[in-house]
Amino acid sequence: MWILLLFLASLLVAGCEKRGPELTIAVGGAPEEVRYWAEVIREFERREGIEVRILRQPVDTDLRRHGLTVALSAGEPDPDVFLMDIAWIGQFTASGWLEELRGIDTSPFPEEVLRVDRREGKLYALPVYVDCGLLYYRKDLLEKYACRVPRTWEELLDCSLKVQKAERKKNPDFYAFLWQGAQYEGLVCVFLEFSTGAGGGLEKVRSYENIKALTFMRDLIHHYGVSPPNTYTEMKEEEVRILFQSGNALFERNWPYAWKLHQAEDSPVRGRVGIAPLPAFEGGRRASCLGGWHIGVSRFSDMKESALKLLKFITSYEVQKGFALNLGWFPARKDVLKDRELLKKLPHLKDISEACSYAVPRPGVPYYVQLSQVLRTYLNAVLAAKMDPATALRKAEREIELLERTYR
What we know:
With 408 residues, the protein is α/β, with parallel strands linked by helices.
């Protein structure tokens, strides 16, 4: 009898023992991205002998940020490692959520990208891949209607009107220019590109140049009709990409990831798409919103040494090259962009490099998320024709000034 009691007691003790810490990484995105992340993690486990649990996040960027902020603000040890949209890094570093990265060779990464990863001279994150806004265009339609690749928004509009009028005779669902106008972060990125191209920007929200840019954006939908009516209700990255890929558009503003999908074997536009830098307004300068995802280690991690190994592995030459080949991501490492095999298989990377040379970052302030929420609300109200541009930008500026005073 006593042997049975001893056995049961040992089971009880074993069941009550606390499990040791495990290395976790939070990743999200489209299904094919998550599947490839699983391959990357399996290779890390094989090499290092460290088990990693993937915490899958949603596709939606705002939901991904919310999930991380809940865990980090509570000081939870998981996730140990996670990806961040470039726009979040100011908030995450100011909140003290990121572990300082020591002993990292930063020479392979562009300094202009690393600026967002540093705070007071200390490094807190590294880029996994770089994004910048691109203009995708139908090469066959530009040739058919004798349009050149537009260098200005005025040229893009003239060509759009011409091509759309002709194409609508056989395809009433055709729209010349697709872009992200729904009420989310993508709209702020697009506005930054238009406003900077007009000589404005986000440093001063209410300005003549910004009013001009926002008026043009609204008119693309309501006056000229070259952008679809659901631009301000539904158009995010994938909605834009899918419609363009169906063959029902001439121009598309999107990120580098769309190229690989446009060239898929079942894509109706395969072999007929080109890439160019986004236009500027006449007399203005070109601008492409700097985007991308960066990786960091939680300050609350209970496996910081292993977490740093995983971070170094993910930002290594080999893994960055794999992301480019398998997911179409634009590499963050300068040395990967010189890889002959990669450039032979993906010659369009040279076109993306040119477009990214016009990259403009969003404000790196710790209250950027709140600033963006204010701005996207008023921008979208203009696109929905519920408010005029001057009034919307004036109200947005007042609310942003209040935010600034609060954070001071």
